[in-house]
C-alpha cells in the first residue's frame, strides 16, 4: 500500500472498536466524509424496513424494495463524529434530500469554533433508486453545506455523479473535482472537471456513442499534496464503453484541458460500474 493509502487507512480506522452510535431507524448511507478530525454522516430519510425485508427476500425482487422513503415528514440529519473519541459531537437537521456520494469535507477555524464545509451530490427524493439503465442518476444536483448547517447552494450548473478528487486532498481544503456528467434524458455521456471555489465547469470530455465511467484522478509521482504540489498535477483515467465497437477502452485525459492523451482498447465490453481505483 502506498503512503497515501496508509495515511487514509490510519485515519479511517482510528475509531475502530470504539464507534457505537444508536439510531432510532436504520438509514441508507452509501458514503460519508472524513475531515482531519471528524467523520460526517448524512442520515437521509430512506430507512431500512424489517417488514419489507421479510416480504422482499422470498420474492427475489430488488434489494431497494427493503427501504421506505420518509422524506415527506422527515429531513436529512448530519451527524458529526469526533475521530479521536468516537463520540457524536453534533446532530444537525438539514433539508430533505437523497444522496449517494460525498465529494469532500474539511474543517475551517473560525474564532473559537470549527466550521465543517461538506460538498455532496444530492437529489430531491429517492425515485432514482428504482430507475433502470437509462436514467439512474436523473435530477442530481450538487450542494455545499456549512456546519452549523446554514445554507446549501449549487456548486456548478451541471448535473453529475461519481465525483472524485485528488486523494491527497481528502479532508482538506480543495478546489478541483472530477465527475461523470449525468443529464436527465440519458445515461452518463461525458466527464467533467469543475472548480468548487469558483463554481465553474473547467473542462469537459465527450464523444458520441460512448459511455464513460467514474473518472479517477491519478496524481503525478511525488506530487504528495504538500505546499509545493499543484492540486491537479496528474492525469484523469476512466473506463469508457465504445458503443459502435462494442468494446471498452481505458481513457487517459490531460488534467487541465481534458484533452485525450491516449486510450487502450480491451477485447471485451467491461460492464459499467460505480467505482474504480488506480494502484
TrEMBL record:
Cofactor binding, note field: Binds 1 Fe(2+) ion per subunit.
GO biological process: carotene catabolic process
Gene Ontology molecular function: carotenoid dioxygenase activity; metal ion binding
Residue spans crossing the bilayer: none
Entry cofactors: Fe(2+)
Domain of life: Eukaryota
UniProt-annotated binding residues for Fe cation: 30, 101, 275
UniProt KW keywords: Iron, Metal-binding, Oxidoreductase
Signal sequence residues: none
Family as reported in the entry's similarity comment: Belongs to the carotenoid oxygenase family.
Protein name from the UniProt record: Uncharacterized protein
Amino acid at each position: 500500500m502506498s503512503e497515501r493509502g496508509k495515511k487514509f487507512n490510519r485515519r479511517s480506522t482510528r475509531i475502530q472498536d470504539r464507534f457505537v452510535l444508536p439510531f432510532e431507524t436504520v438509514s441508507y448511507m452509501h458514503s460519508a466524509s472524513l475531515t482531519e478530525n471528524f467523520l460526517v454522516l448524512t442520515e437521509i430519510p430512506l430507512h431500512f424496513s424489517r417488514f419489507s425485508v421479510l416480504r422482499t427476500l422470498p420474492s427475489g425482487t430488488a434489494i431497494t424494495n427493503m427501504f421506505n422513503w420518509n422524506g415527506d415528514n422527515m429531513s436529512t440529519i448530519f451527524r458529526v463524529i469526533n475521530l479521536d473519541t468516537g463520540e457524536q459531537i453534533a446532530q444537525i437537521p438539514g433539508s430533505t434530500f437523497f444522496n449517494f456520494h460525498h465529494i469532500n469535507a474539511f474543517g475551517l477555524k473560525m474564532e473559537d469554533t470549527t466550521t465543517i464545509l461538506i460538498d455532496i451530490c444530492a437529489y430531491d427524493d429517492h425515485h432514482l433508486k428504482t430507475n433502470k439503465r437509462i436514467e439512474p442518476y436523473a435530477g442530481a444536483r450538487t450542494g455545499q453545506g456549512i456546519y452549523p448547517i446554514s445554507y446549501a447552494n449549487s456548486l456548478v450548473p451541471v448535473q453529475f455523479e461519481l465525483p472524485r478528487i485528488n486523494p491527497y486532498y481528502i479532508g482538506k481544503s480543495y478546489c478541483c473535482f472530477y465527475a461523470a456528467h449525468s443529464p436527465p434524458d440519458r445515461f452518463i455521456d461525458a466527464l467533467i472537471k469543475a472548480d468548487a471555489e469558483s463554481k465553474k465547469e473547467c473542462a469537459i470530455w465527450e464523444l458520441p456513442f460512448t459511455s464513460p465511467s467514474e473518472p479517477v484522478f491519478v496524481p503525478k509521482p511525488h506530487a504528495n499534496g504538500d505546499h509545493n504540489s499543484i492540486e491537479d498535477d496528474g492525469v484523469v483515467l476512466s473506463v469508457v464503453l465504445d458503443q459502435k465497437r462494442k468494446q471498452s477502452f481505458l481513457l487517459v485525459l490531460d488534467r487541465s484541458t481534458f484533452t485525450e492523451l491516449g486510450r487502450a482498447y480491451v477485447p471485451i465490453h467491461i460492464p459499467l460500474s460505480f467505482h474504480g481505483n488506480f494502484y
